Amino acid sequence: IEICATTQLPDMNRVSGPRSAPNVPATGDNEIQLAQLKRELASLRETLQQALGERRWQDTAGSRPVSASVAQRLATLGLGRVLAGELADRVSHVEKLNDAWQQVTQHLVASLNSLSSEELAGFRIKAVIGGSGSGKTQTAAALLQAGIGYLSPEQMVLVHCGDPSRDTVLSQLATRLNIRQYSAQSHDELAEVLSECRWAREVIIDTPALSPALGSQDPVLTLLSRQRGGLAAFVTIPATASSDHLREILDHGLHLPLAGVITTRVDEATSLGAVIDAVVASDLALVGRYNARTASLLPVSGAEMLTNAKRLAKRSLERQAAQLKVAV
Predict the structure, then answer these.
(1) The model's pTM
(2) Tens digit of each residue's pLDDT (9 = 90 or more) over 225-248
(3) CB 235 within 8 A of CB 284
(4) How many beta carbons lie within 10 A of that of residue 38, not counting itself?
């Protein structure tokens, strides 16, 4: 609350009080100044009570520290200021910090929806999209490998929409698994391939990197927009990226039929706050987490992600404390 002016504060030049004698000790002057300060604080308190709209002072004094503590904890997890502030405001009426923190974490977990393996398998046409270096190709390979668990190679198709001359891990995997491969460089070519492969039980589409700077002229948007029904796009978001970058990628892909997000490079991350921040803001479901060690896609839940975020935050604080100890 910002108080620009007030007419209720007393005029300190006219404060009545006992006149100090020439030989009054210093303690008497201190007592007079303390009394004046108390009167000034009392007047300021009355002004604040009016500005708060007749809210009880004790309620405000008891709740704001709790909100501030909750916001600080969320910031330690790596969440952005906007989301942290919104969550802290939700518990501004709660008196106890532990109760407020429990409510906030429960709300976060509820906001982080996730898809089960069965729900993921129900999408017939899966297009993997993401920014440069986000792990799209590795994620597509993991989806291809997962599909072999419930389908035969003859029922699956891989479509390359990038450079057809590149020999990637994905193309090598498809060759080793005897999965048919197609190439499509334009919207019409992809539409023709999808029409020809109507027999396939599952189609994995590997795409070039998204280019938010191009806006609606992004070739990936042109490629995937207005395709056959049933196409679902899955966004790969690296845990090492900033919240602003992840939000930019997710906002850019809103023109596509987005079905969820897949987190990558989690083993390299020092915080999961940016991922949580971006996923909650986008209201997209968590599809899974790419495991670089096993080159597979693992299921992930909101509770698991929040637990890992707390673990990384604790590790970061311990590292900072150790560095400070060495510096001292």
Answers:
(1) 0.77
(2) 988 778 999 999 999 999 999 999
(3) yes
(4) 10
